[in-house]
Amino acid sequence: MSHDSDTKPILPGATVGVLGSGQLGRMFAIAARRMGYRVHTLSPDDDTPTGQVADREVQANYDDLDAVRDFARHVDVVTFEFENVSAAATEAAAQFAPVRPAGSVLHTTQHRLREKTFLAQNGFPVTPNETVRSLAELEAALARLGTPAVLKTAGWGYDGKGQSKIERATDAAAAWTKLGTTEAILEAWVPFQSEVSVVAARGVDGSYADFGVVSNTHRNHILDLTVAPADVSDKVRRDAAEITRAILEKLNVVGVLCVEFFLTKDDTLLVNELAPRPHNSGHFSFDACVTSQFEQQLRAICGLPLGSTELLRPAAMSNLLGDLWADGEPNWAAACKIPEVKLHLYGKASARPGRKMGHLTAMASTPAEAARLALAAREALLRRD
Ligand code: AMP
Description:
The strands form 3 sheets. An 8-stranded antiparallel β-sheet has the order 13-12-9-10-11-14-16-15. Helix 2 packs parallel to helix 3. It starts with 14 loop residues before the first strand and ends in a 5-residue tail after the last helix. The mean pLDDT is 95. By secondary structure, it is an alpha+beta fold. It has 12 helices and 16 strands. It has 3 domains: 85 residues, Rossmann fold; 61 residues, ATP-grasp fold, A domain (Dna Ligase, domain 1, 2-Layer Sandwich); 189 residues, D-amino Acid Aminotransferase, Chain A, domain 1 (2-Layer Sandwich). The protein binds adenosine monophosphate. The site of adenosine monophosphate (AMP) has 14 residues, from strand 6 and strand 13.
């Protein structure tokens, strides 16, 4: 039995199940509990960022189908914040509760090759790319696409994991060995002017809302700073929204999905990646929008009307990685001295380098000033006074 076609709203008081237990689930749980829902979370860990806020934390592997079934039996709808859940697990959950977005959305977006194929076949603009299954195929693809190029694993990867830049054709063998896979994708290098993204939601009834175009800066392949709104032309804004809406419709998404784009030097948008859930580049919405991406996810999966995504003030978000803890606990009070800055910490016990521990959101009268404040507050964390 599938519950996917249920359109009756799931109202406050009901229980929402989240597969995954990181910061995305935590912020979702905060939004859901604020609106009177109960939240259960399932992941292999305990005392997790989501579990600390949820009503119930189930510790089980995602491939423990009995545990997933039991989890789904006790909730009214299942969503996720960790997208690398197997089709078997989403199918097991779907026997007992609607899974939103559906497992088919995860299946497409959790695999770069399937995702790129879906995008290209539906006419969405993507970076020139080729599938490679051997060193010989890699060398042939490099000859066609040229260098530099980026070799990425076909299977899941995030924050730059499972990818390597190839500067010269002679580096092909080393890159192939380093990736250690049998299936990969080679992408032409895009000398972009900027990276932008759109976080959007689609309701059970097909309604659509997005949070506008924001600009993202990465450091070591990890998002470092998001500025909202992005400084782009009206045409780019319109094109980005149109592409995003069409992607959500084609995938039949019920929930939230983020589209990450490269904006090329001639103002063309290329889709880089899809994430079928709230996204780091939408965290600013928690403080700066009428409805956050997390509340929007809740509304969408529960069949409620979507909320307004209006940006209340220009905003910027800077990520706090574990590296900030290298010389001891960051100076929280110093960052809080800037009154327009909001501190978010995810409750993670160990601060490993590169691990997302929290973020700061700054609001100001201009996006540039918000960015300056978000960065200044992060600098202040290292002050020893
Ligand atoms: P990904 O994991 O594919 O989103 O890549 C992480 C980051 O690596 C992107 O946000 C870009 O900053 C960079 N990157 C990935 N692919 C390319 C490309 N084809 N051209 C230029 N930069 C890229």
